[in-house]
């Protein structure tokens, strides 16, 4: 059975006349990493703040760990970890001192936890170094360690990769995967850049102007962006037979609009065309297709993906 950590129903947030989030229905499962992708102002932070109980929705409902009722939901908020902003770190303290400060503030016992979390995020060796001398990547990793203090089952990371250099990006992505694997938490991680999160997430949620435009798995995304020959013709059954019998391939897919995506023979398009002609199939469309991640993302938010 699917184990839902969070569900939202028609979640809407209005600021006077402006709708920052519109009718959002989401379901998040344990152990998955969700990439929340949207341009600046798309509504990512608004959604995270609503989930974390830092802001109140105008309409709609949030169900957290199976509870919708306000009092119980407030109680369940303890099971959520949120990435602390850089400004929440004390620059004159070391990583361990910052962790201790937040551990004590939140009434969490056990100083051995500090050691464990520093190890987890790869900051055990930072010793006496003050946080003000940390790289941005180190600060982000410390922020993530703090978010893990209460042993959360849902982790909300708002743009943890923003502003990092390529090494920092790789480190933070690796850390997020490690946390998900070792702790079986659900992670919701926002970014304005789809390629940045590619292969880090199990699922992607594309948001634009406060609306969810598309939800897809890593597998779906790969399929959407995979290069293929897009073939359209009158006799689809005959086309499929020719692909299987004459070209010996099953690496194709018949789409709902009866076009065919062929993932084989991309370098031998002439051979495909010749074989089709020889078997009396006259394509009305025959072209190499496939998006880059960036152009796929843009096509979704421009509404070119039939959503
Ligand atoms: P970014 O990547 O820039 O952080 P975002 O996707 O996180 O963007 P939000 O911060 O959720 O976007 O903002 C969504 C929209 O709601 C924006 O147009 C923003 O200006 C607006 N907004 C956010 N907070 C408020 C507020 N307190 N009052 C009025 N409008 C707000």
UniProtKB/TrEMBL annotation:
<dbReference type="GO" id="GO:0016887">
    <property type="term" value="F:ATP hydrolysis activity"/>
</dbReference>
<keyword id="KW-0378">Hydrolase</keyword>
<dbReference type="Pfam" id="PF00005">
    <property type="entry name" value="ABC_tran"/>
</dbReference>
<feature type="domain" description="ABC transporter">
    <location>
        <begin position="6"/>
        <end position="234"/>
    </location>
</feature>
<dbReference type="InterPro" id="IPR003593">
    <property type="entry name" value="AAA+_ATPase"/>
</dbReference>
<dbReference type="InterPro" id="IPR017871">
    <property type="entry name" value="ABC_transporter-like_CS"/>
</dbReference>
<dbReference type="InterPro" id="IPR003439">
    <property type="entry name" value="ABC_transporter-like_ATP-bd"/>
</dbReference>
<dbReference type="GO" id="GO:0005524">
    <property type="term" value="F:ATP binding"/>
</dbReference>
<dbReference type="InterPro" id="IPR027417">
    <property type="entry name" value="P-loop_NTPase"/>
</dbReference>
<keyword id="KW-0547">Nucleotide-binding</keyword>
<comment type="similarity">
    <text>Belongs to the ABC transporter superfamily.</text>
</comment>
<keyword id="KW-0067">ATP-binding</keyword>
<keyword id="KW-0813">Transport</keyword>
<protein>
    <submittedName>
        <fullName>Phosphonate-transporting ATPase</fullName>
        <ecNumber>3.6.3.28</ecNumber>
    </submittedName>
</protein>
